[in-house]
Amino acid sequence: MDDIDRLIINELQGGFPIASHPFAVAAQRLGLAEGDLIARIAALRADGTLTRFGPLYNAEAMGGGLTLAAMQVPAHRFDEVAAQVNAFPEVAHNYAREHALNMWFVVATETPERIASVLSDIKSLTGLEVYDMPKTEEFFLSLRFEA
Amino acid sequence: MTPLDDIDRRIVLATQAGLPLAAEPYAEIAGQVGVTEAEVIDRMTRMLADGVIRRVGVVPNHYALGYHFNGMTVWDVADDVAREMGQAVGALPFVSHCYLRPRHLPHWPYNLFAMVHGRDRATAIAHAAAIADVLADRCQGHQVLFSSRILKKTGLRL
Question: What's this model's pTM, rounded to 2 decimal places?
């Protein structure tokens, strides 16, 4: 990764134009050529520096359900329960965390009503309590990683 | 906010994995969806204004950038000041996400969640200390939960 890659990552985490020749517009803003910008983003995607390039959608604004849930999983069952939880297509992310509540996952469903049934299915499948922690308020999201 | 119709949903499906890396990406999406480029541009511009699209751009893998320590900091904040404190904490430059969530007493007294990221553990812990300074005596307790392993990570699906 060189200075131009860093410039692209730092300046283009939002504000990519929704216009007919968006790379040309963005490239001009950054002092690059259109073709260079496209090639650089393609290379950063290919090597895994970028996970995605494009619009980031808000599941709830599209009418879907979203929650964060946590479980306390006994150490000897951890991998087995992780596999059970991950098998649900509605489970988008799942992280092991260092706490008594050691498994934290995000559930995204097509409708808000589906959340409760997915959590209850996970509870009956694993025999473990599932703590539902839907956000009740969201504050300004400043997600900008500096390269 | 305008509710999403069928064409909007087709545009979401065609773009949620990413935009084509071509000079006219919206024209390519238009071809897939079966509408004009102008229609795609108008609709995506509206979805951005409505908050259906949070932003358009590059999404870096924070691990690839060296941010290996992602700490979920959780705080037990008095309910009457929780919103005010959420705004203050969410505005800190190193906080990527900030939410209020329900407590689960007696096991889980924390209602304010703030994600912090660092290239090393000490930086993430220093970020948590800075949040503690902002909250001061309005917080009765907190923890920092580091992720020890990613068990699953996929994009949101429709």
Answer: 0.81
